[in-house]
Amino acid sequence: MSTSLQTPGRGLAPASMWFRGMLFAFGLVLLAAFIASCGSGKLPAFQSGQNAYVTLPTQNSVLQLTIDGLTGQITMGTQTPQVGGTSPKGIALLANKYLYVANSQANTISTFTVAGDGTLNQVGTPIPSGGTGPDAAVIDSSGKYLFVSNNFSNNISVFSIDSSSGALTAVAGSPFFANDTPGEIFILPSDNFVYVTNSRIGTVTAFALDSSTGILTPVPGSPFESGAGASGLAVDSTDSFLYVANTSAVNPGSVATGNISGFNINSTTGSLSPISGSPFTSNVGAGPTTLVAAPNGRFLVSTTSGSSYSVWCFSIIPTTGQLLSEPNSPFSVAAGNLFALIDSTGSFFYIGSQSANGVEAYTLNSNNCVPAIVTHSPFSFGTAPGKMVIAP
After folding, report:
1. Is this prediction's pTM over 0.90?
2. Which of 19, 64, 134, 276 is the most buried (most CB within 10 A)?
3. Which of these, 368, 358, 379, lies nearest to 68 by C-alpha position?
4. Is the preceding omega at residue 274 within 30 degrees of 0, hence cis?
5. What are the phi and psi torsion angles at 296 (to 5°)?
């Protein structure tokens, strides 16, 4: 007797018809989701979720988070034991394997291993940061080096990373002088150049990176003048243009306070030269602090504290790097000036907020940059966060 669900001359058996009907219905659901998402300017994120980590300076600990890949909602996970007098701030993640935390009060760096479920376990005792007031922590794209800015001692430390143990070793010559109050760090994906903001003197310090040794050498002409309160850093999708948020810069003839400097990056030397029309500002608002470039390469977004004119969005002209304010920008939504991140799918936008004691979460419309709040945002941790990192 034949076991086929289809008998010649009699059509499909009920089981086969049901199965095909279910496939058809499922296809309609996916098509409807795709059409709806395209209309909103946001593609659906078909994934279960991502781990993320945030430092909690006043609680002297690090909090594990889970980001829902479909909704963008944040769920709090485990928290590392509180260690008094550390005040962790900067945070860097290496391949879901090791997490490094800069302890701004203790002047040390803690190393954690990342378990399969994302939980953290501290390895050994923290090591000296190489300076005072460690602030930002960044790992280069090769995963070979950790960079830490030391805000109070005016230098930047570089450590080589042991890939098998996660252990850190200071490279020759570290720490390197980085001018007054070094803060945010940006490393070009090519790993040729490292840029650091100097908020108190309104400049950007630039280094050439020797990828074989980790040694930093000042770029000719460094530091480069940016503007008062230089803070956040970002580059365009081609690594041709560098942008700097100048929090307290004055704009003659404008009601807005603060602006964004744009620089051409010399691909050979790393030197910076102003983009025509720079600096760029919003038509209203004050205090741009963070910067993040959208993965689609179209937009540059900056955030300020408060909820009035708090999210500034600019389109990037690919050929010149000039910035054009998007229609209806700035947007009056609850924001913050602690950090700004877009997840690896480009689906969700997260802002560190002191007033919310946590994170404000949005989607960004890929057509016009309009932010739409994620359900249940803000996500409060009970205390202001320091810095946040999202696992790839």
Report:
1. no
2. 134
3. 379
4. no
5. -75, -5
